Amino acid sequence: MQAETAINLFVKKTGGWVASQLEACTRCGLCATACHYYEATGKPEFAPVWKVELLRRAYEQRFTLVGKAKVAMGIEKPISDDDIKEWSVYDFHGCSMCNKCSFVCPMGIDIASLIGAVRAGITAAGEAPAGLVKKTEVQLATGSPNGATREDYAAWFARTSKEMGKELPVDKKGAHTLLLLTNLEIAGFPNNLVAIAKILDAAKIDWTLSLEARDAFNMGTIIGNGKAMKQLADKVYNTAVDLGVKRVLVSCCGHGYTTLRDKLPNVMGKPLPFEVQHIAELMGVLVRDGKIKLQEGYFANGHTYTFHDSCKIQRAGGIMDEPRLVLRQLAGDSFHEMLPNRKEAICCGGGGGLRAIPEAYDIRMAAFGLKVDQIKKAGADTVVTTCSNCRLQFKEGFEHYKLDTQVTGLAELMSQAIVE
Amino acid sequence: MDWNAFLAFTRGPLFYASLLIFIAGMVYRLVQVAMLGWDKDQSVARGSKAGGVVKSFLKGILILPFIPWIKGAFQKRPIMYIAGGLFHLGLFTVIFLGTPHMLVWKSLLGFGWPTLALPFVDWLAVAAIIGMLVLIVYRRTDAVLRLLSGPAEYLNWLFVFLPMISGYIMTHHLFFRYEVAYSLHMLSVDWMLIWIPFSRISHFMFYFFSRTIRGVEWGKRAVTP
C-alpha cells in the first residue's frame, strides 16, 4: 500500500526536531500570506501549513494519544492512497520550497523543511510527478537531469577553451578550487563558464573543472529521495577528495549549493574536508577584499537593473550583501531594489523542480505574475540573478507575459568590467 | 445545591487535581518529543547560532507581537495580528498582573509581585474577549482557516473562552450570584487545565522549541531569523 510506505518514511523522519515544530503550529494560517502560489491561485489548499498536513497527521496518529483518539473516534482518517495523490499536487506543483513562509510564522516554524519531509514520503510512495521521477532516473544514469554526458561537458570545455584562447584546467590534481557547473548552463547560457573562468583567473585562483563531478544539480534533493541525493552528492565528494581541492565552488545552482553545504555533512555524519562556496559569495568577497578591481559604473548605461534574490542562494544561503556589493559597483544608481527583497523576496516560482513538471506550468506562470509586478514597480528593464534555475524561469516568464525585459547572470556582468 | 460547598470543591481539591494533570501531561508531552531524538548538525556555520537564537526570540517576543506592521503579512491579514495580539496581551495581563490571579500564584509559589489597577486589567480582559470573538468569526469565514479547523480547533477556542467570559461575569457580578459565577469560573479553569496537555493550546511550550530551532538554523546561515 502506497500510504503505508509514505507513513513509514514520515515516522522515520520524525525526530524531536520535526515533532516539536509540528507541535508548535497553532493553525493560524498566516503562512498563506507569504506563499506566492496561494496568492496566485487563491486556493486555500496551497497554504503552506496545509502542505504539511500529511506529516502532522502521520506524526499525531503514530506518536500521540490525541492522534490515536482522533482516529478511534472517527474525527480523523488514517492517511490513504488518495491522500498521497492529492498532496502530491499541493507539495510538488504548488511549492518551490522557497521557505518565505517560515519568516512570517509567529512560531518560527521552518515550514519548507517539513514540506521536504512530505515530499520524501510522497516520492517513496511512488506518487512524485512523472517529470521529476524521469529527471532523477536520467541524472542517476548520465550524471545530469537533462542527459548531458561526460562527452557533452568535454565538448563544452573544449569549445570554451578555444573561445578563450587558453586551455581550461580539467581534473587538475592539487588545484585549490573545483568549479562545479550545471546542465542548465550547457543548455541555456554556456557563456557563464567563460565569465567565471575570467573571474577566477583575474583573482589568480588555482582552479579546475572536472569531468567526473560535472553537475551541481541534485534531483535527489528536489524529489526528496535520500538515497539518490547521497549517490549524486557522493560523486562530488569523492571527486573533490580525489583531486585534493580545498574548496568546491558552485557556479549557479541554488539547491545544489545548499545540498552540498548543509545536507551532505549530515548525510556523511562528519564535517566535509573542503569548503563549499557559491560563486555569488566569492564574487562579492573578491571585490570587497580588493582582489579584483571593477570599472565602477561600467553598466550605468541607460539600462535599469534589479537583483532577484533566489531562495536557496540568498534566503537560505545568506548570500545577500555580496552580490549587491558587486552590482552597486557595476550599475551605481541604475540598480533599483524590488520590494520586498532579500530574505523576504518573492520566489520566481520556478524552483523546487516546478520547471520539470509540465502540469504545473500554469501555476508557476501565475506565481511569476507577482514577480512581474515587482519588476515593473522597481522600474527595471534587466533582472540580474545568481541562480540558473531562476534565470530560466525569468526567461520563460518574460516570454509568457510578452515582455521585453531581460535577464542576465551577475558573473557575466562582472567579468566584462574587470580592470586588468 | 450548596454552591458554597461546590465552590470550595472547584477551587480546592478539583483545582489541585487539575493542576497536577496539567503538569504531568505537559511533562509527558515534553518527554515524548524529546525522546524522539535530536541529530547533531555537521554542517559548517556561516554565522553565530547563539546570536541567531537571541535574535529569534527578540523577533518572536518583541517585534512580531508589538510592531507587526513591519511585516508585509500584516497588510494581508491584519485581523489575525490585531485580534490574536490583543487576545494574548489581555490573557497574559489578566493571568499575571491581575490581583486575584497573582494571589493564586502567590499561594502556589510562595511569593507575589505588584499588580495593575483593576480598571486597566478589566479593559484588557474586554479586549481579549472581543479578540476571541473576532477570531472565531474569522475562523468560520476565512477560507484558509476553515480548511485548517476541525473539532479540536473549535473546542480549544471554547475551553479558553469559558474561563475568560466567566471570569468577567464574576468580576462584574452579572447574571449569577457571586458564588455561582465563581464556581463556574473555577470549573471552566479546572477543565481547561486538564484539556491543555491534550490540545494545541500547549503551543506556549513548543514555542520555545520552534523559536530556538529557528535561531540555530538561520543564525548558522547568517540570516536574521
**Order of strands across the biggest sheet of chain A?**
2-1-3-4
CATH third-tier fold name of the largest domain in chain A: Rossmann fold
Quote the beta fraction of chain A: 5-15%
Order of helices and strands of chain B: HHHHHHHHHHH
**Strand-residue fraction of chain B?**
under 5%
Q: What's the structural domain tally of chain A?
A: 3
Radius of gyration of chain B: 20 Å
Instruction: Identify the CATH architecture of the largest domain in chain A.
Output: 3-Layer(aba) Sandwich
**Overall average pLDDT of chain B:** 91
Question: Major beta sheet of chain A, specifics?
Answer: 4 strands, parallel
Q: What is the CATH C level class of chain B, in words?
A: Mainly Alpha
Largest sheet data of chain B: none
Counting DSSP E segments of at least 2 residues, the number of strands of chain B comes to: 0
Spans where pLDDT lies below 50 across 5 or more residues of chain A: none
Distance between the termini of chain A: 64 Å
Q: Multimeric state of these chains?
A: heterodimer
Helix content of chain A: 40-55%
Structural class of chain B: mainly alpha
CATH architecture of chain B: Up-down Bundle
- What name does the CATH topology of chain B carry? Fumarate Reductase Cytochrome B subunit
Overall geometry of chain A? globular
Q: What does it look like?
A:
The complex is a heterodimer of chains A (420) and B (225). Chain A folds into three domains: 2-128, Fumarate Reductase Iron-sulfur Protein, Chain B, domain 2 (Orthogonal Bundle); 131-284, 3-Layer(aba) Sandwich (Rossmann fold); 291-419, Rossmann fold, CATH 3.40.50. In chain A, 55% of the residues lie in helices and 7% in strands. Chain A contains 22 helices and nine strands. Chain A has helices spanning 2-13, 16-24, 36-41, 48-51, 53-63, 65-72, 81-93, 101-104, 111-124, 130-142, 150-164, 183-188, 191-202, 219-223, 226-243, 254-268, 279-288, 311-315, 321-331, 361-378, 388-400, 410-416, and strands at 177-180, 207-208, 247-250, 275-278, 293-294, 305-307, 382-385, 406-409, 418-419. Chain A has a four-stranded parallel beta sheet. In chain A, helix 16 (254-268) links the parallel strand 3 (247-250) and strand 4. In chain A, helix 15 (226-243) packs across helix 16 (254-268). Chain A is globular, with a radius of gyration of 22 Å. Chain B is an all-alpha fold. Chain B has a single domain (3-36, 68-220), classed as Fumarate Reductase Cytochrome B subunit, CATH 1.20.950. The longest helix of chain B is centred in the middle third of the chain and has 24 residues, at 118-141. Chain B is globular and about 65 Å long. Chain B starts with a helix and ends in a 5-residue tail after the last helix. The chains are: A alpha/beta (420), B mainly alpha (225). At the A-B interface, helix 2, helix 6 and helix 16 of A face helix 2, helix 3, helix 4, helix 5 and helix 8 of B.
